[in-house]
Design brief:
It contains 14 helices and twelve strands. The protein is α/β, with parallel strands linked by helices. The strands form two sheets. A seven-stranded parallel beta sheet has the order 8-7-6-9-10-11-12, with helices on both faces. Strands 2-1-3-4-5 form a five-stranded parallel beta sheet. The longest helix is centred in the last third of the chain and has 27 residues.
């Protein structure tokens, strides 16, 4: 029987990916499907190939209960919060991701670079000043920024991306603090702290680099904001669900000098258009939002998607060997 694959993420622009997927079996490409489209046809497929960026489809109970022949979900991402992993595994559906593929993901710096770019853009008011010029203005006084070498930058999560981000900040002379209870940081330019309170109290910029989990869900909330500097800049290229957005907007309203630059929104796959932060951004210059572009560079996509296809290839070969034996 031909292995049938449903691809629900754009891949035509990524070198060799469409060709390599077609080699694996019968493939249906839906670059940007709706939830209902996927739900209605998923019963016909053995595999789903996906990515959380841009997606409108959460692969949870509603979809998976219709996926009677689905054997595997392959995602070209480190994050997997677009998949109900526990329910999929309960149904015997395998999950393939590049989360622990260290030799591969260590080559991907795109998200850390975006985090650093958002930091500089926020410190120098780049978006606001650009929009001002387009309105016919030419006045620097409203856009006086800060130099990084006079600031303290707090990094929450010091894994692959957090440490890359730190290296970029070090090159600009920033004072660095980091919180990560699962790492021992051996870097004399980075002060490791044991309490998040130290990050909140002392940082001019706070950059988030953690996976979303039960431990990190809404870890940045009213209690956190109450401890932060009134003019703090938050940088989030991890997941929107790490921040309680209602508490964040309340904090921004109360503190006009505070800002956030984020590449993600809370529950962005299922209900991003209901986001209070997105709504607030339409009326406030304290917010910069990019549409989850963190890993979306030519090089990073070729690396991530290419390796995900290899993982799916190996999985299908394993299934075929089992049939033979």
């Amino acid at each position: 029987m031909t292995f049938k694959i449903l691809v629900i993420t754009p891949v035509k622009h990524i070198k060799n990916i469409e060709k390599d997927l077609n080699f694996l079996g019968e493939v249906t490409f839906l670059a940007d499907p709706t939830f209902d489209e996927v739900k209605s046809i998923v019963c016909n497929f053995d595999a789903i190939f996906t990515n959380p960026n841009k997606s409108k489809v959460f692969l949870g109970r509603e979809v998976l209960d219709n996926a009677s022949r689905l054997k595997v979900i392959c995602t070209a991402s480190t994050g997997t919060n677009h998949i109900d992993k526990l329910y999929a595994e309960k149904l015997g559906i395998s999950i393939l991701s590049i989360t622990e593929e260290r030799n591969v993901i260590n080559k991907i710096s795109a998200t850390a670079e975006l985090s650093f770019a958002l930091t500089l853009a926020s410190l120098r008011h780049i978006v606001k000043s650009h929009l001002s010029v387009l309105k016919g203005e030419w006045d620097y006084e409203k856009f006086i920024g800060r130099q990084m070498n006079f600031l303290t930058i707090g990094i929450i999560g010091f894994g692959r991306l957090g440490s890359m981000y730190a290296n970029f900040c070090k090159a600009f002379g920033a004072k660095l603090m980091a919180y990560d209870p699962y790492k021992i940081i051996n870097d004399d330019k980075v002060k490791q702290v044991k309490n998040l309170k130290d990050i909140f109290i002392n940082s001019d910029v706070i950059a988030l680099h953690v996976h979303v989990s039960s431990e990190t869900f809404e870890m940045i909330n009213k209690s956190s904001f109450d401890q932060m500097k009134k003019g703090v800049i938050l940088i989030n290229t991890s997941r929107g669900d790490i921040i309680n957005e209602n508490d964040l907007v309340d904090f921004l309203i109360a503190n006009r000098e505070a800002r956030i630059a984020t590449d993600v929104l809370a529950d962005e796959i299922q209900s991003r258009n209901k986001s209070r932060l997105l709504d607030f951004a339409k009326q406030s210059d304290q917010v910069v939002i990019t549409p989850h572009i963190g890993g979306m560079c030519i090089e990073s996509q070729e690396i991530a998607y290419g390796h995900a296809v290899k993982m799916l290839t190996n999985y299908i070969e394993f299934l075929n060997e089992k049939k033979v034996n």
